[in-house]
Amino acid sequence: NAGVTQTPKFRVLKTGQSMTLLCAQDMNHEYMYWYRQDPGMGLRLIHYSVGEGTTAKGEVPDGYNVSRLKKQNFLLGLESAAPSQTSVYFCASSSWTGNNQPQHFGDGTRLSIL
Amino acid sequence: GESVGLHLPTLSVQEGDNSIINCAYSNSASDYFIWYKQESGKGPQFIIDIRSNMDKRQGQRVTVLLNKTVKHLSLQIAATQPGDSAVYFCAELGSGFNKFYFGSGTKLNVKP
């Protein structure tokens, strides 16, 4: 059982380049989330989805876009990468069965923008 | 306890001792809390959760205590082992659908 899988694990971009981070979960979870983690700070929510075909903004959505075309996949896009987007990005998912469910995380994508 | 900033608080304990990690949360209306463990280069791993109608919950070698009066959460790890070395952080359920707010974490260093 793979859980939450993120690809790629590492990436270096130049300012202005675009890329897509991929997240896949095999737990049939309804909810999926994208976070960024910066040194000494808690996880901050970028975007989330409560079901296939739906997305919503989190705390820090600017500069990012997302898509949830399939239930098991949640994609995070950087349209024009900036050095401020250098971070570790985590995807998470949680089940639908009521509120108050723990989120399950992938192992992250380490992204550096030069 | 946890704080926002560049440097994580660090707790150093001897192998076999008990560890206590603290967390202050902000929203008195929060009714669900989770402790996560994050090892270097890995994603956060669920350890234990507690709902606001409880004061204490025990798992395997871990206990979470909730004090709603002072908005304080603690994680106790019994007989700490080298494999427990990691960053631990708490999460509180905020408003909205299953949206959490995460603390910055405490680094636990277990000395053999």
Describe the secondary structure blueprint for this structure.
The complex is a heterodimer of chains A (114) and B (112).
Chain A: E1 4-7, E2 10-13, E3 19-25, E4 31-37, E5 44-49, E6 56-57, E7 64-67, E8 73-78, E9 87-94, E10 104-105, E11 109-113
Parallel strand pairs in A: 2-11
Antiparallel strand pairs in A: 1-3, 3-8, 4-5, 4-9, 5-6, 7-8, 9-10, 9-11
Chain B: E1 10-14, E2 19-24, E3 32-38, E4 45-51, E5 56-58, E6 62-67, E7 72-77, E8 86-93, E9 100-102, E10 106-111
Parallel strand pairs in B: 1-10
Antiparallel strand pairs in B: 2-7, 3-4, 3-8, 5-6, 6-7, 8-9, 8-10
Strand content of chain A: over 45%
The general outline of chain A is: globular
What is the number of helices of chain B? Answer: 0
The helix-and-strand class of chain A reads mainly beta
Number of E strands of chain A: 11
Gyration radius of chain A, rounded: 13 Å
Count helical runs of chain A. 0
Profile the largest sheet of chain A.
Answer: 7 strands, mixed
Overall mean pLDDT of chain A? 93
Report the β-strand fraction of chain B as a percent range.
over 45%
The largest sheet of chain B is: 6 strands, mixed
Low-confidence stretches of chain A: none
Q: Point out poorly predicted stretches of chain B.
A: 1-6
Q: Please identify the oligomeric state.
A: heterodimer
Order of helices and strands of chain A: EEEEEEEEEEE
Helix content of chain A: under 10%
Shape of chain B: globular
Helicity range of the residues of chain B?
under 10%
Radius of gyration of chain B: 13 Å
